[in-house]
DNA sequence: ACAAAAGTGTTAATCTTACACCCATGT
DNA sequence: ACATGGGTGTAAGATTAACACTTTTGT
């Protein structure tokens, strides 16, 4: 057994947020190294006694002062031996969603700067992070069509039109409002709060909330949340 | 940046094969260490200059003398810090399929022994390999219902009933033969060879083959191979 | 002629799609 | 009264699900 291995292991997180009908990605500016002043995903090396999950959460806290709502492993990037110019690094990439209310304050940041970028306006990224982001974007699109992850991007109470716009803007397509509403309501995982949105233009809109308990119950029963529409 | 990291990186492969209407998994007997004489997945440490893909393929060759038909990354196991009792190992698990004709000869094996086990008759496994196998089994079941991976488990020419049995036995359910045939044929990715199977009992059965070219063309067009049946 | 596995169509039920007008409020 | 966004139903079309008999061969 070759114990003389010289490969480092890192984690990276693609954090998606949603605000003002736009999907955003959290990036941090590199402070050191070849990629100094380039934007990059949140990430860093795993500590010896730390699980991968712990490492991601720690980096999210340290670099961006953020706690995420949803976290899943995305893919492990280790087929480009020179993805990091310093030495060989294998990176386990994670896919994260934050509630839009967490979008504003990027506190505790020990990175030079941490910012949200619209998915349509991403600067050149350090390392192979553009590739990782591309995969994450595909994942969020695919996942949205068979799992109700949209709620992890919205505030606790939201309008039906928010949900609708979220689907439209992430999937980049028009959807039929009536069919969408019917489908989502048919799952029975969101409920009317009885409240109305703060007054704005037009007819007042009902506020809805996601019913986590009901959701878990349905998952138990093996229900599949497929959303097919135009 | 903490360069003083003491974590090793390994790859493991869950190799599925199919023969005599049974799904099989390739296991090797451990030669050394705490788990000596336990069965384990094919796998080993990644070499410094080697990609993860190369590492898996090398291990498959060295430990089992096998070349696989389909290989995809499954999941990276790194949340149990003590999954290997010797030191910390993060393992990138791969999911592989081999054509059933490759099932018999396990040549070149530098493992004490390498054998196929029926999925229903798996011995206790070393490390956390039972957990990895469980995930791989879920993956093959899920994947079968939306991707035509069954062909990577069958010989080049096969009977419709082989394909039917493959779905039944992997998914553990009865299927309606007529509806199944209709669905599969509707994709247009398999074709009649014009040949018939070696004579056996009953009416002679046509031999079919998978049309890789047509398949890729359809993927290009964005067709989704969903298979829903009883 | 019979046993064994292969091959084949139709119908009802369900789900999906397409589509347009009224409602409640603020200005 | 009108502008704005919210809320709602129905009918045609497509897909899925349920179902059993005939064909071809070997024995």
What does this protein look like?
The structure is a homodimer of 230-residue chains. With 230 residues, chain A is α+β, with helices and mostly antiparallel strands. Helices cover 27% and strands 27% of the residues of chain A. Chain A is built from five helices and ten strands, in the order ββββαβββαβααββα. In chain A, the strands form two sheets. In chain A, strands 1, 2, 3, 4, 5, 6 and 7 form a seven-stranded mixed beta sheet that branches. In chain A, strand 1 and strand 2 form a beta hairpin. Chain A is elongated, with a radius of gyration of 19 Å. The termini of chain A are far apart. Chain A binds a DNA duplex (27 and 27 nucleotides) through helix 4.
**Which of globular, elongated, flat, extended, rod-shaped describes the shape of chain A?**
elongated
What can be said about the biggest beta sheet of chain A? 7 strands, mixed
Helix fraction of chain A by DSSP (H/I, runs of at least 4): 25-40%
**Count of DSSP H/I helices of chain A:** 5
Spans of at least 5 consecutive residues with low confidence of chain A: none
Kindly, what is the distance between the CA atoms of the first and last residues of chain A, rounded to a whole number of angstroms? 55 Å
Structural classification of chain A: alpha+beta
Residue-averaged pLDDT of chain A: 92
Largest interface: A-B, 30 and 30 residues
Oligomer: homodimer
Number of strands of chain A: 10
Strand residue content of chain A: 25-35%
What is the string of SSEs of chain A from the N terminus onward?
EEEEHEEEHEHHEEH
């Amino acid at each position: 057994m070759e114990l003389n291995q010289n490969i480092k292991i890192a984690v990276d997180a693609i954090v998606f947020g949603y605000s003002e009908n736009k999907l955003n990605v959290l990036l941090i500016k590199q402070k050191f190294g070849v990629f100094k002043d380039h934007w990059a995903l949140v990430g860093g090396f795993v500590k010896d006694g730390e699980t991968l999950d712990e490492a991601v959460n720690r980096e999210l806290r340290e670099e961006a002062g953020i706690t995420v709502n949803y976290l899943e492993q995305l893919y492990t990037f280790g087929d480009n031996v020179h993805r990091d110019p310093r030495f060989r690094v294998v990176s386990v990439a994670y896919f994260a969603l934050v509630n839009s209310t967490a979008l504003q304050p990027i506190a505790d940041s020990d990175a030079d700067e941490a910012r949200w970028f619209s998915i349509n306006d991403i600067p050149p990224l350090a390392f192979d992070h553009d590739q990782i982001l591309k995969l994450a974007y595909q994942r969020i699109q695919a996942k949205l069509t068979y799992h109700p992850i949209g709620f992890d991007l919205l505030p606790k109470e939201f309008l039906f039109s928010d949900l609708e716009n979220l689907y439209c803007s992430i999937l980049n397509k028009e959807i039929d409002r009536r069919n969408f509403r019917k489908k989502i309501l048919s799952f029975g995982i969101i409920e009317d709060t009885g409240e109305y949105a703060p007054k704005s233009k037009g007819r007042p809109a009902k506020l809805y909330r996601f019913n986590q308990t009901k959701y878990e119950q349905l998952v138990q029963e093996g229900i599949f949340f497929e959303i097919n529409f135009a």
